[in-house]
């Protein structure tokens, strides 16, 4: 799939079939995640692949935004200790967010290219996810991504044109 | 009564439903107010699912509710008026059933 098409035809999918994901597909998504840019190439993210049905059920209890249930959930975390060591305050306050988001976007596009559906979730209880997935305190979940074969084809909503300016703010593009 | 559902599965279903409602309440303190109605709809959807696990007979009028409820997220993305209309239709369904009693 052409990059532009992947970007413009990807949609958040909230209903999935029962079909599981092949390991090869998951590996491709993880490659996409690990090849995302990160501030100072710090690579402080950590990725947890959850495919156990019972564990996904638990995640859905503590993650109100998690649709599905999907056959796979990718949890994008950040090692906050390492983020502080590598990036100081900028690392802890901002880069952890930016870097997690860039990795997530890579995964979304790679998933779409494979014909998979995905949905990014920010609505979850951080401490509950940490405990359910045995994370140490310094590793924090940033985003969850529901992944699976789509059981729906949502229509893309309109994209706003008025968000772009020329040279300076408020000069129409 | 022939109870073929294991007690563990029943307890798990109730725990998941109660847990989802409580965790949603806590999370909503930090989230956009628009998520509130969506979470309540999801509680209704999960309650219907739990009834199936618990062996509670659901009336026929609830059969299409899960699909209508799950449309809520998409409709919300279309805009507040479309979402309000969906909720009004769901309310009308409930009131219609109450008036039949």
Number of helices of chain B: 4
Q: What is the residue-mean pLDDT of chain B, rounded to a whole number?
A: 86
The chain-level structural class of chain A is alpha+beta
Q: Quick one: overall form of chain B?
A: flat
Query: What's the total helix number of chain A?
Result: 5
Which quaternary structure do these chains form? heterodimer
Give the proportion of residues in helices of chain A.
40-55%
Largest sheet of chain B: none
CA gyration radius of chain A, whole angstroms: 17 Å
Strand tally of chain A, please? 4
Query: Which regions of chain B are unreliable across 5 or more consecutive residues at pLDDT < 50?
Result: none
| Gyration radius of chain B, rounded | 15 Å
Helix residue percentage of chain B: over 70%
Order of helices and strands of chain A: HHEHEHEHE
- Characterize the largest beta sheet of chain A: strand count, sense, and whether it forms a barrel: 4 strands, antiparallel
Are there runs of chain A of 5+ residues with pLDDT below 50, and where? none
Task: Give a structural overview.
The complex is a heterodimer of chains A (173) and B (101). Chain A is built from 5 helices and 4 strands; from the N terminus they run ααβαβαβαβ. Chain A is globular and about 55 Å long. Chain A has helices at residues 3-9, 23-34, 53-62, 80-113, 126-132; strands spanning 45-50, 72-79, 117-121, 139-148. Chain A is α+β, with helices and mostly antiparallel strands. In chain A, α1 packs across α4 (80-113) and α2 (23-34) packs across α4. Chain B is mainly alpha-helical. Chain B contains 4 helices and no strands. The relative contact order of chain B is 0.11. The A-B interface holds A 14-15, 57, 60-62, 64-65, 67, 123-125, 128, 154, 157 and B 12, 15-16, 19-20, 23-24, 26-27, 31, 35, 39, 42, 70, 73-74, 77-78.
């Amino acid at each position: 799939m052409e990059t532009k098409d992947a970007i413009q035809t990807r949609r958040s999918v909230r209903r999935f079939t029962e079909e599981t994901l092949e390991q090869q597909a998951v590996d491709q998504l993880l490659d996409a995640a690990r090849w995302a840019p990160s501030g100072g190439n710090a690579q402080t993210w950590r990725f947890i692949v959850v495919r156990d049905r019972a564990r996904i059920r638990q995640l859905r209890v503590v993650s109100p935004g998690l649709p599905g249930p999907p056959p796979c959930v990718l949890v994008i975390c950040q090692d906050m200790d390492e983020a502080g060591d590598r990036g100081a305050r900028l690392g802890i306050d901002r880069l952890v967010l930016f870097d997690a988001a860039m990795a997530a976007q890579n995964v979304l596009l790679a998933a779409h290219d494979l014909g998979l559906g995905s949905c990014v979730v920010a609505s979850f209880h951080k401490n509950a996810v940490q405990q359910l997935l045995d994370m140490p305190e310094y590793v924090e979940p940033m985003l969850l991504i529901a992944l699976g074969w789509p059981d729906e084809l949502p229509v893309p909503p309109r994209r706003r044109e008025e968000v772009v300016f020329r040279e300076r703010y408020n000069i129409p593009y | 009564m022939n109870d073929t559902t294991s007690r563990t599965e029943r307890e798990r279903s109730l725990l998941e439903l109660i847990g989802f409602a409580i965790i949603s309440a806590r999370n909503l303190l930090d989230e956009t107010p628009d998520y509130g109605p969506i979470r309540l709809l999801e509680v209704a959807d999960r309650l219907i699912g739990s009834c199936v696990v618990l062996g509670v007979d659901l009336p026929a009028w609830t059969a299409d509710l899960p699909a209508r409820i799950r449309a809520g997220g998409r409709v919300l993305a279309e805009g507040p008026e479309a979402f309000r209309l969906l909720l009004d239709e769901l309310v009308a369904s409930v009131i219609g059933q109450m008036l039949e009693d």
